[in-house]
Amino acid sequence: MKVTILGCGGSAGVPMLGGEDGHGIWGRCDPAEPKNRRSRASIFLEMGNGENILVDTSPDIRAQLLTNGIKAFRSIFYTHAHADHIAGLDEVRGINRIIRQPIKAYGAASVLDEIQTRFDYVFKPWTSPEFFRAVVEACPVPEQGQFEMAGYPFTVFQQVHGRIHSSGLRCGNFAYSTDVVELGPESLAALAGVETWIVDCFQQKPHSAHAWLERVVEWQDILQPRRTILTHMGTDMDWRWMKNNLPDTMEPAWDGMTLSVDEPAPISVRASVSCS
Known about the structure:
Blueprint (H helix, E strand, L loop, with lengths): L1 E6 L34 E5 L5 E4 L5 H7 L7 E3 L5 H4 L6 H7 L3 E6 H10 L17 E6 L3 E5 L2 E10 L2 E8 L2 E4 L7 H6 L5 E5 L12 H11 L3 E5 L7 H7 L4 E3 L5 E3 L16
Parallel strand pairs: 3-4, 4-5, 5-6, 10-11, 11-12, 12-13
Antiparallel strand pairs: 1-2, 1-14, 2-3, 7-8, 8-9, 9-10
Pfam families: Lactamase_B_2
GO molecular function: hydrolase activity
EC number: 3.-.-.-
């Protein structure tokens, strides 16, 4: 399975809008380092059976797909319904036109319901043959437990994200935990044995809704993944500083970073996920 980190920035990206000259607020991030330029958080999974999965539709999704040469996928997984993770949903109309069919949108029922209140027209039934709007089919998954997506077994686990919950996603020995500040015992159990973990680390000091550096180090000591990759990073997280100061098993992501990870065997009989 190939994993591409399309974006690894926080909700405002890096740089944030503003600055004395209008060209952005960089905080501690060195503007001269290209890997400090971060679009909003999203990843893309290319599976061994030829299926592709987009995780979240960030406001930057059009540029992310073009930059990484991505032209087709039939599945989207939503971690939660905050704007920096869903606001690019309209852009998948171009993908609809390429694949000539609706896209399946997976996520917790409460997440899909909230997205549907903002993009109700996207969830309306498709009338062949034209795509004058994006079209997706809602495929609710458990808040915690196993489900099938794109022909593979996945595990979803609940994460505390400030005042709401978000969904973490695991496939085989790979897991993705954006937008998380607390992990309960059940979720830590779901992550047991993970080897490659992409995890939220917004800044160096404590935050009410996002993990920070010390907390991620604590989780790493518990889970002991072979490789921990930080994402959803704000202007406090300079890429070069992290490369020089993080523990050996931790590293910062950058937009366009790719990973090759083992994937589980595909499912021969489709599990029951009802889409509408």
